[in-house]
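**User:**
If convenient, please work through this fold.
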Amino acid sequence: MSDTAEQDARDARFEDRVSDGERVSDDEPVSEGEQVSDDERRKRLRERRAAACRSAKRVLARPGFLGTLRERLALLDGAREVYDLDEASDMYGNGVVEALEDKVAGLLGKEAAAFFPTGTMAQQVALRCWAGRTGVPAVALHALAHPEVHERHALSEVAGLRPVHVTSEPRQPTPEEVCALDEPFGTLMLELPLRDAGFLLPTWEELVELVDAARRRDATVHFDGARLWESTVHFGRPLDEIADLADTVYVSFYKSVAGYGGAALAGPRDLVEEAKAWRHRYGGNVFQQFPTALSALVGLERELPRLPEYVRHARVVAAALREGFAAAGLPWSRVHPAEPHTHEFQVWLPYGADAVARAAIRTAEETGTMLFAGGWDAPVPGLARTEVSVRAEGLGWTAEDVRAAVADFTARLHEETDG
């Protein structure tokens, strides 16, 4: 997901990574003789998929950002239940923003928290603060971590930090790799879960050992916890116990708890105060933020308690997908990880991304059921990959429903590829 405006730009980024000659849908509507660029085709495909997702009667998850302004504003209908709307509006981070910061600090068991307009800014500031305190500008992190893949090298270009890759393998790093790094680093950053590798988490024991390895290197530990909210099922631990392993933790308010946007950085009070000073320097001390802050409070109230249920049902969906693909006789398919660590996971199929995308959209348009609402990319020629999310809308799907949807999808996929 997986900060940048990642949730609402996810499909655009996914299709922009289509490579090695993988084209995007040839059957997008065009006028006779019209010349359409690949970028325009991608745009039209995204628009068609978004329309199919909005109109589908059944989905596994319906991203809120696809809604109309009226629908998005309706999210605040329950705001009176989480905050006194007769209080004065916020100005430069007081009022409701402070209430949200206190809420997050309590949930994560930290002394304090600071609200940020984006996670990209929050993490840059956190790592910059730690570099100043440790005197070491090197940050150890995974090569697939969000700052390395989705932030245009902001750590080095803006914050003056130097990323050091612990590993580039599509898995979480190991304690041995942390100990074996051949240069000093001031902070170890762990993305939990590691989105681009398949929303992967280490085991609890592995996480404890990773943190211990960083401590043995005299380094601080920062969690990129954009999706940390849904990690409790996999770890079998409450949020505050997970967050207690790290010196600082960043969390997002729109990926898992369905707010409008925003993020928070939680940690020691003195570091959080320093982070607020840098937030001002970075232009993040926004005059009024009450809609975003209220939506985050609503999301924490409504969605946070339901995330464990989503994670458990994602495992039912993943198993049914594997069974459905096997019954459909696909030559090769993969649900990764086989048992999802969170309520999100990857699906890989042995076809070109454009053909799979067309089949997924056609299935939604023709049956009213949208099995794959996300974009498809082509990591290597002939393999297509997408991300699947299971939220409230997906809880009503039985395993048989999933298998039936797979059958409808694969029938159209065979039509696309046989033609």
